[in-house]
Structures are given as C-alpha cells and as structure tokens.
C-alpha cells in the first residue's frame, strides 16, 4: 500500500498535532505527580508534629489500670507494715513496764 502525496501532507500536519497533545499530557501528569508528592510531604509533616488523642475507652482503661496499680501498692505497704509489727513484737523480748526503785 503506497501513500499518496496528498495523504502525506495531511499526515505530517497530524504528527505535529499528536506531538503537542502527548507533550501536554506528559506535562499534566508530571504536575499531578508533583502535587501528590507535596500533599504527602505536608501530611507527613503535620502527622509528625501532632499528638494523637486517645479515645475515651482507652483513656478510661489507662485510668483504671493506674488505679489498680496504686491500690495494689497500698495493699502491699499495709501488709508489709503489719508483718513488720508482728515480727517486731515477736523479736522484742523486753518487758513493756519499767520498775523504778529509789
């Protein structure tokens, strides 16, 4: 199949149009990609500088856990004190009363 000279003239014009269209599409794609990278970098900066807030359930769970730990420590302290008193009473052989003779 041969190309006639009239068809060749039309094709050459179309090649220029196609080249311009492809170039504009490539530029548009590049600009979109740059916008996406800027959005991602802004979002990562924002996320790195903010502190996540705890949900109400998590907050109550942490509070309950702290209360349990504190109450456990208090119970251990009371047990320790009572054991010390019991041990001191057992080891203390001195009488509680003093006899003073003049």
Describe the protein's architecture and organization.
Residues 56-102 have a biased composition (Basic and acidic residues). Residues 26-102 are annotated as: Disordered. Residues 33-43 have a biased composition (Low complexity). This protein is mainly alpha-helical. It has a domain at 1-48. Helices cover 79% and strands 0% of the residues. The protein is built from two helices and no strands. The longest helix has 45 residues, at 5-49. The protein is rod-shaped and about 145 Å long. The model has no long low-confidence stretch (mean pLDDT 79).
Our Rg estimate from Cα atoms comes to 43 Å
What is the chain-wise order of helices and strands? Answer: HH
Q: Kindly report how far apart the N and C termini lie.
A: 145 Å
| Percentage of residues in DSSP E strands | under 5%
Q: Please report the total strand number as a whole number.
A: 0
Largest sheet: none
- Supply the number of helical segments: 2
Q: Can you tell me the overall shape?
A: rod-shaped
Low-confidence stretches: none
Query: How much helical structure, as a percent, in the residues?
Result: over 70%
Structural class: mainly alpha
Output mean pLDDT: 79
């Amino acid at each position: 199949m041969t190309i006639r000279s009239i068809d060749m003239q039309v094709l050459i014009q179309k090649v220029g149009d196609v080249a311009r269209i492809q170039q504009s599409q490539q530029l548009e794609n590049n600009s979109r990609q740059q916008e996406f990278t800027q959005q991602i970098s802004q979002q990562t900066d924002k996320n790195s500088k903010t502190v996540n807030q705890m949900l109400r359930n998590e907050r109550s769970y942490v509070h309950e856990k702290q209360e349990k730990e504190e109450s456990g420590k208090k119970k251990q302290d009371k047990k320790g004190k009572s054991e010390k008193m019991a041990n001191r009473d057992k080891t203390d052989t001195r009488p509680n009363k003093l006899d003073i003779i003049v």
